[in-house]
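Exercise (ungraded).
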Amino acid sequence: MTTLPRTLGADTARLEGREKVTGTARYAADHGHPDGLFAWAVPATIARGEITGVDTGAALADPAVLTVLTHENAPRLEEGVDPTLAVLQSPRVAHRGQIVALTVATSLEAARAAAGAVRLDYTSEPHDVLLGLDHPGLYAPEEANGGHPADRERGDFDTAYDEAAVQHDAVYETPPLHNHPMEPHAATAWWEGERLCLYDSSQGSSTVQQMLAQLFGLGPERVQVTSEHVGGGFGSKGTPRPQAVLAAMAARVTGRPVTLALARQQLAAVTGHRAPTLQRLRLGADRDGRIQALAHEIVTQSSAIQEFVEQAAAPSRTMYVSPHSRTTHRVTRLDVPTPSWMRAPGECPGMYALESAMDELALACGLDPIELRLRNEPDREPDSGRPYSSRHLVECLREGARRFGWQHRDPAVQGRRDGRLLLGTGVAASTYPVMVSPCRAEAHARADGLIDVRVNATDIGTGARTVLAQIAADALRMPLDRVRIHVGSSKLPEAPVAGGSSGTSSWGSAVHKACEGLRRQLAEHDEVPETGLTATADTTEEAKRGQEYARHAYGAQFCEVQVDTATGETRVRRLLGVFATGRILNPRTARSQFLGGMTMGLGMALTEHSTVDREFGDYAERDLAMYHVPVCADVPDIDVHWLDEEDPHLNPMGSKGIGEIGIVGTAAAVTNAVHHATGVRIRALPVTPDALLPHL
Amino acid sequence: MKPFRYETATDPAAAVDLLSRRPRAAFLGGGTNLVDLMKLGVEVPEMLVDVSRLPFDEITETEDGGLRVGATVRNSTLAVHPLVRRRYPVLSQALLAGASPQLRNLATIGGNLLQRTRCTYFQDIGKPCNKRRPGSGCPARSGIHRDLAVLGASQHCVATHPSDMAVALTALDATVHCVSAEGTRTLPVAELHRLPGDAPERDTVLEHGELITAVELPPPAPAARSAYRKARERASYAFALASVAADLRVSDGTVQHVRLAFGALAAKPWRARAAEAALVGQPATEESFGRALDQELAAAEPLRDNGYKIPLARRLAVAVLTDLAGADEGGAR
């Protein structure tokens, strides 16, 4: 037993890898039933107003069509749960593309054809879909997302900024962005009497279970949700989306299983997006580059039906020395779809602005951008005064600089040329908070020697299933192949969502605790009894601990770009990320997370944007041909490294979350490199050829 | 799904006959555009006549030293054909700049020419579009038009033609061979597509039921060098913001021969005849290339968000011509 290799930290392949590459892994829409029906959603064709007439006659003329649900006949849902889930409850239209009807038929084709035959009359009202710094509807919310206060003031920003020897004042813009996971939002639902069964593409079936139970007025024990395999989410499946509710409604009305997969073209309107931001950043520093005053003021948008405030100023409260600080959020409610979570909400857009401003401040002070950051390294978290549980940003910057060859960099802009190509390099820091939520788990020793570990974690492609099995094996001091890990069903012990880079910490803590408990029981038995042995865990108390420390992960991204002066095209040549995120539990899946995050950040910098159509009120980019997620040809050989970080204030595994930090900072590293290459500072993402070319 | 009939054509006459008698029937090639448009409800044919298995899948040399490419040859096949790579590099490069490997494996030469605009309004049946529903209006002029036309557009339509291949074919003076109930005809690729005028619903001059059977390339211009460059938002699988196909011969520093076509600027591949005329006999320098392109692009009429295309096309073309001239003179790029 004592010579067992540690399973935790081992380079273990995904346990379900074979199922996925051979196509046998089944996703939510793959659980069709021989008696099952198919549904298709009908989107609103106005941006604001009311449905005045419904004609489903033509749609129902096809005998294959069993029903068409609208606000006139859909089952009533309990109110006050989540307004984006109150589908087909009222004739009001809050945004273009809102789902206003659902056709249900014996074939997908018939449902889709029927959707095209549904006739709706509307009274249309003038709509307002454009965010601006001076939008008259801007207000100060009670708080920003994540429980962050909307506004924070420390010291006397105005005076300190006025007196600062070096001042930088600029507005940075991020566009609406869409998550676009590979697997669209899909669900298969059926009812067993008064019990709802659901396969849903979600990041957390415990959450889906609870919210659907509320909506349908059921006890949670009467709702069973399975999310066994999920083809990505990036936050857009973090809470239930309309497909789950609609499939459940349609199954209730028809008495048969119903599968609903939203079309790619429908996702932009109903599954959420990263809200656009307009961020004014002011940095006042002394001549040595020490920040005296920092103001980060966010203007963003939400929908008419729900407040959602992207917490983009939050990282400026924790990142650098800032004796005098003002961080604010203002939001306006537009006739647009409700924004939602997208990878590193808050940190991702906020750090783009802060790290761009730091680059500009470094130039204004005549300092190397890494040196500027070293000079503004705080010894305690500025806003809270708490000590850091661990903070190795400096080490990330130094190690990255060494690996990237930063010391050979000529600070002059437009200093390197390769024919028509301008070359430049940039750096940015990244951060993401350590979060953990209460979780339950169960470990059961079977008489045959295997261990069943149960936790309602969700593996959205991250490798969570594998890492949890490793955590279990490690805690049990057993080889990995004795562990059977069970995730992705609300029948399992309740667990939080795969989000906030907190899944492994939260689920893993409970798995570790249950397995430690089981190990103690096993030690008391010579052999496992016929009925087995079971240990359960609930980490409600543990999840409260550690609050006396400021806990964040840190990283640094380095980028080299080439800019074609003939076309304004920017391509990334090199991208390096160095991270300090506690202990890495599985280097293979961790590397994928960092790589994926950095690739998504590359897209944010250069290719991804959703364009509001001001006349119609929707987004112009509706599929993967129009919405430019980076393709392989855009992505260089990304280099990822991490530091061995020991932090005793985290969880039994010693890990910080890694799912999101890769995207944070990447966009600024890229655009800082574009500036170094060209001398042009584009402060609105993405840096597309049309934006850059006029300045070259 | 709207029900439709599906017929596999075994000979071109039967295919033409099937279509000619049905105004709402359509030829089906690789389906990489038409099937998408059917899913979106943009195209609602009552019958598809699959012409992808007609015996037009050969690439053969013509007697005059040109190349005849059957209409059902796949884009990926043509792109890597040794004669194409050697004699018409601009065509190979244009094909490889289009779509993705998976799409190129399916897409046919005939279908590539007849693909339709990717204008967001054309593809959304919930919105007006004169090309899709004549007379319903063109929201693109005041709406989303960053990718749309700056040359040859009209009040009724500002769509662009999305093909890369067609731009190279236009520069190479290729012709299309067609068959219809009336017989056969041959016309230049440069005259295949229409500018929108007041009938943007008609992309090409082909009659309903007229079938493209082949594309023919004349022999390459002696001693000329050719290249295709495409500016786009991502490195692959993106339509052009602007593209250039050029074919150039320089001797003693003077332009002897030049053919130039732009993509993504108009509803058709834009053959830059004014620039060509201005260049022959002129020094092969950036300055004279730029002057000639200014003449060509003087007719451009940008909208609010697509004016960048004019300097982009100019600089892209100057760069391509300069590179070709430099290679011709044996110099560095």
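Further reading is listed at the end of the chapter. For now, observe: Chain B touches chain A at residues 1-2, 40-41, 100, 118, 120, 123-124, 126-127, 139, 142-144, 146, 229, 231-239, 241, 305, 308-309, 311-312, 315-316, 318-319, 333 (CB under 8 Å). Residues 102 and 169 of chain B are 22 Å apart (CA to CA).
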